[in-house]
Write a structure and sequence with these properties.
The structure is a homodimer of 500-residue chains. The first copy, chain A, has 500 residues and is an alpha/beta fold. Chain A has helices at 13-37, 54-64, 80-83, 89-93, 110-117, 123-142, 156-168, 178-185, 187-201, 216-247, 276-300, 316-324, 342-345, 351-354, 376-380, 385-404, 418-430, 440-447, 449-463, 478-497; strands at residues 42-48, 70-74, 101-105, 146-153, 208-212, 304-309, 332-336, 363-367, 408-415, 470-474. Chain A has two domains: 3-247, 3-Layer(aba) Sandwich (Rossmann fold), CATH 3.40.50; 264-497, P-loop containing nucleotide triphosphate hydrolases (Rossmann fold, 3-Layer(aba) Sandwich). The first copy, chain A, contains 20 helices and ten strands. In chain A, the strands form two sheets. In chain A, strands 2-3-1-4-5 form a five-stranded parallel β-sheet, sandwiched between helices. In chain A, strands 7-8-6-9-10 form a five-stranded parallel β-sheet, with helices on both faces. In chain A, helix 1 (13-37) runs parallel beside helix 10. Chain A starts with 12 loop residues before the first helix and ends with a helix. The model of chain A has no long low-confidence stretch (mean pLDDT 91).
Chain lengths: 500, 500
């Protein structure tokens, strides 16, 4: 695979100067077009053999382009904060905004590669790591991102010569670490693992380019010219797509479903109630246990994510308050989501939820969540059909990563009947301190009751997975709903941290 | 001090229900006025005796107000990430946006108090901690924030009764920790320290309110009513102020200074040069040493903040690139600052810089910085005279906190002559890959050359402190400037981590 990158290609200094001038001007024009268009981020990864000039290439790109819109980010071993979150948390956090460029060193490919070379991970784990990367890249590519991956190559001989040369020069020896020599000794294994990585993750939307790293002039021009060509192609395609989308007269909002569709919610017995006296007794008991469990979970570093969805006025806020009541306010956070900020809007829709993953031992409560993509965004046409359809899969993947990190994830769907909602709306209207809860939007959403029931049905159908099942809560009786929520959290947390 | 909060004040259930209804409606109206006005954040702190109901009061406020615009945040011992940054980093990060409300538990007062009670800090350190808090609060109050601080009180007898009562009830005992009993045994010392804290940090813009905590009904109403009264008063005052500012016909931009003012920059010998051959030799040598030092600094966890200011085209970008060239790209970040995002705009101007403080062992480079407040914002009238004048002090305080945390802070002012700037502008205009660096704004700023020299002079005069002196760099010769910057970083880092 790497033979084609061992040809000893070089560019003379005078040639370099000429081509550099032209390339620089092209890159800048493309960078500004991308910035102005502002519809997709550019993600450029550098991996490869030590000594092949990854760092110097990043420096050169920073010199060539307008550095205000370029971020260069490298990764070390995960910090304490990073280890508490799903593995991709740090990569999500560091994504560039749409219109901007991110250059990544020792990024998501680094640890799978080293794990494979040094025996830390077996074939199966290696496979899983690569599959995770592909899902991550797919989600971004589907959202329009341009991902370019460069493997900077040196033959074993060239690598040795390079490391020897650097080590011998007291002014350059700082560039060589023990790890570099260790990797050199493992060159065969390193290259074998790299071949697998490149083969399996080389995809249309996120291609690998192998670049010969011996001659700095050659590699800098080569990388720059590939970026210019790919960025130009991607810009043309995306601009065309945007123009087409603008001219198409297709209806943005899906057809309303048939009246009163049959859904998973039909099987709920919404008539369930609890007597107030029983409720009072039990809620105190549950909260006491939950208080204990919360403390244990914090001590053990077990984090929790609670998600609440359901129609307007289904009692999400009340259930959340009673649930976190007995948890330590210092270790629990409730997140509600208003309209996205401009920074959030300039990222993939999952980005703002990734940011809220709890620290070790903390509880993050989501009062509405990433499911907005397949509920309100679907209903209002903010997401295209293609976007919301693939979102189920993206969401399942996101939740898998949460669960795989050992975080307790519970998803509650609080459901009420159409009549019960009307009753609550009317009560809110009259209340001097609850009418703020009722907006015109709520009435508008109510008109789409059947559609929302169907969208909720789809949510349960497509995202109730073994790892992250939905818990449907009969909400017509608030006391019943609250008890069920608290007890469920208590039971699952108890299982996790070893009983109250 | 606390006698007045040991009166046994109670509110009956029926009375509570009546007053709650009215209070809730008032709080909501005020919350929405604050949100719509969106000119100041509301910061509400809860401290006090264990068992006095801090947590339950926060829960009640969350119930009473629209929780979408309220954040409740409590603090534990600092995490690894937090310990690497200045002490107030976490409090800055968690500030609410303008228009929103933050409720804080065990916040900035908690550790000074416990440190005093348990002998961890002596009188001097205690004083310093309180002085830091006052400076933090002053900076926010000056910016318009409303800060309210509640001390929830119980007498020693009542505290004992409360803790006994909770401990005896298996359903409530989870609320009592060993720490609570320890604090109870130290009640006298706890109260003595609290008295000092309250006395010294009770200020007009950030008042303390002592609330008797025995009866939940009483304390919830009392806190709620104080918030309503203070928020109403603050809103009136701020709205009046905004109306006045809008109607005043005063010139927003300061008078231009006399032509060619005498400044600190006059004493710079801008004619200094370095021969290219010498430069090449030395820059390699310095970069090698810096590369070594950077690795040592990372191993030792020594963080670095580099600030670059100076006229347009003074060579900041080039000097930065050569400086970080030999540093590990995985541990250094260059921050440039375009127009603030809407989230940044909704905070104190220092907020976005606080966010960029480096992790342990990392290097953060600021290509332009918080000095924008006293340079471009002063020049363009974006900051009022009062705002930029007090900014020197705020900046000194900010930098003190950076230095006190053991972070290496170096501030470079790259200076060039007016003629040299013109030469570079003209060269940029002609270059196919540098003309993007030249904007209309640069030409406009150039017209204000004398003003900017004066503003720069003021910057050096007011913010060149012993802990954080300015390093003036003669920039007419780029090679000289780059060498001086790299050597300075090298020397200071060498001093810090024990020589190259």
């Amino acid at each position: 695979m790497f033979d084609a990158a061992e040809l000893g290609q070089r560019v003379t200094k005078s040639d370099f100067k000429k081509r550099e001038l032209d390339l620089r001007a092209r890159l800048l024009v493309l960078q500004y077009r991308t910035l102005e268009f502002a519809r997709f981020p550019v993600i450029i990864d550098f991996a490869g053999v030590d000594g092949a000039g990854k760092g110097s290439t990043i420096n050169m790109l920073n010199k060539w382009m307008d550095p205000r819109w370029v971020r260069s980010i490298g990764y070390h071993a995960p910090t304490q904060e990073e280890r508490a979150r799903p593995r991709f948390w740090r990569y999500w956090r560091d994504l560039p905004q749409k219109g901007r460029i991110g250059l990544y060193l020792s990024g998501r490919y680094s640890r799978p590669l080293l794990g494979r070379v040094y025996g830390g991970s077996d074939e199966l784990e290696f496979d899983q790591r690569l599959a995770e990367i592909i899902r991550f890249e797919n989600a971004l590519v589907d959202d329009g991102a341009l991902i370019l991956k460069f493997w900077m190559h040196l033959s074993q001989e060239h690598q040795k010569a390079r490391l020897d040369e650097l080590s011998a020069d007291p002014l350059q020896s700082y560039q060589v670490s023990d790890g570099d020599w260790r990797n050199h000794k493992n060159y065969e294994g390193f290259i074998a693992a790299a071949e697998q990585i490149i083969t399996r993750t080389n995809r249309g939307g996120a291609p690998w380019n192998i670049v010969e790293g011996v001659d700095p002039n050659y590699r800098h021009l080569r990388v720059g010219e590939i970026i210019a060509a790919e960025l130009s192609r991607h810009l043309d395609a995306q601009e065309r797509k945007a123009a087409l989308a603008g001219s198409a007269e297709s209806p943005r909002v899906a057809e309303p479903p048939a009246a009163d569709p049959t859904t998973v919610f039909d099987s709920l017995d919404l008539s369930q109630t609890v007597a107030r006296r029983d409720y009072k007794k039990k809620v105190r008991e549950y909260q006491a246990q939950l208080g204990d469990l919360g403390r244990k979970a914090f001590d053990k570093g077990v984090s929790t994510v609670l998600v609440f969805e359901g129609p307007d006025a289904s009692g999400k806020g009340g259930a959340i308050r009673r649930t976190i009541w007995s948890l330590d306010a210092r270790t629990s956070r409730v997140h509600q989501f208003a309209a996205p900020t401009d920074e959030e809007r300039a990222h993939h829709y999952l980005w703002r939820f990734w940011r809220k993953m709890p620290a070790a031992g903390f509880v993050s409560v989501f009062d509405r969540s990433w499911y907005g993509r397949v509920l309100v965004e679907r209903a209002e046409g903010f997401a295209s059909e293609d976007e919301w359809r693939r979102a189920y899969n993206e969401i399942n993947d996101f939740e898998n990563q949460i669960v795989d990190r050992g975080i307790l994830l519970l998803k509650f769907w609080l459901h009420i009947s159409e009549e019960e909602q009307l009753k609550r709306f009317k009560k809110r209207e009259k209340s001097p301190y609850k009418h703020w809860k009722l907006t015109d939007e709520d009435w508008r959403n109510r008109e789409q009751w059947d559609a929302y029931e169907l969208y909720g049905h789809d949510v349960v159908q497509y995202t109730s997975t073994q790892k992250a099942p939905w818990i449907l809560v009969e909400g017509n009786n608030k006391l019943h709903a609250r008890l069920k929520v608290i007890k469920t959290v208590m039971d699952h947390l108890g299982e996790r941290v070893g009983g109250a």
